[in-house]
Amino acid sequence: MTDQISSVSAPTTMDKVIDRLRARSLQTGGARQMYEKTIAGLDGPRVRFTDGTNPLMLATYDYLGLLDDERINQAVKDAVDTFGTGGHGSRVWGATLTLHRRLEQEIAEWVGTEAALVFASGFVTNFSVIASLAGPGDWLLSDQRNHASIVDGCAAAKSAGAVVKVYRHNDAAHLEELLTQAPPDAARVVVTDGVFSMDGNLVDLPGIAETCRRRGALLFLDEAHSLGVIGPHGGGTPDHYGLPNAADLVMGTLSKSIPASGGFVAGRHDLIEALRFTTRAYVYTGAPSPPNTAAALAAIRLVRQEGDQRRARLRRNLDRLLHRVRQEGLRTTDTGSAIVPVILGENAVAIEVSRLCQEQGLFVLAAVPPLVPAGTARLRLNVTAAQSLDDIDRTVDIIAAAVRRVGAGSLVAT
Ligand code: PMP
């Protein structure tokens, strides 16, 4: 009898697991459905959701406006005709296609390195390559605001015996101080985002790269939001700063300005080949699919051919957006990237503003903890080359009206 009662009331392992997961989830204040809309189709810079709405998309990583480009779509169809939709298994088990080889070669040419290695996703690239790079006793130093995939890669390296240190955001002096504490014979690897994804700001590459050089550390640079997008030639943060060889390993994703999915690292041939047969997410997983690989390859070719015009349009849109947002008295910064944060403060305010914008045909989302620190909830706008100036003006009009309606007078910069 007693047993029966306790088995009914005591939380089961399933209850405990679900409770713990809920405690860590996005603090969306009950507005989770807003974050989980389902896209039924595309319409230029707009999306068609299954709920019948057709908003302008300001929460997209399609920075260069290449998503749904008919030349990329055609390359995918051709690849499916030649190779089918899937593969034969792992790249190291006979499944490498000509497409994979070409993609790796053209990524290396694009980034300006000797070689490149492609993975199934950007997250997995960071996670697995970072875990491979630092072994027992090696020192791994990571910026405080690095992406979750880097944080998890560092945790994996730590559990394998690496020493992990987190340096203050973009603080080269703190990095230097930590590097001086490493034993002289320890290998040192420094990992940083090129563009920090929630604030949109750039790495202090001159400071961080110089510190690495002086202290003999290898620099791993995550260019997920910057390759193709920033720098006079679209070469990312090294191009922006005029430091083409600042990083030893450049990581990039194939899911943002390149509208496919996957990730890569690019660097010296001997390092890349050493990673190829050791990185677990390369060895123990199926090769990227033919359609996906073909999409990435076709997109990289287009970025190399048409990048200048697309970046010029993107810059024009960014300038207009920043100008108009400031004119409305909202708090933002010119981050140097295509990510524009509009800081609103409280989660509930940011979520309500986002909801009102969506009602008016503008899809923007509020970034809330744990994505951003508490008290800094924000709208996170992504500008792209596909948007028109009218789209940008409408975006700001809708946001400004929503902020006024929520009555967030204190949100406005003084
Ligand atoms: N690095 C950074 C800085 C990112 O912002 C992201 C994803 N937003 C990734 C890596 C992971 O890339 P992917 O989405 O291709 O897995």
Automatic annotation (TrEMBL):
It holds the Pfam family Aminotran_1_2. InterPro entries: Aminotransferase_I/II_large, AON_synthase_class-II, PyrdxlP-dep_Trfase, PyrdxlP-dep_Trfase_major, PyrdxlP-dep_Trfase_small. One of its GO terms (biological process) is biotin biosynthetic process. The keyword DNA damage does not apply. It catalyses: 6-carboxyhexanoyl-[ACP] + L-alanine + H(+) = (8S)-8-amino-7-oxononanoate + holo-[ACP] + CO2. It is an enzyme of class 2 (transferase). Residues 56-399 form the Aminotransferase class I/classII large domain. Its cofactor is pyridoxal 5'-phosphate. This is 8-amino-7-oxononanoate synthase.
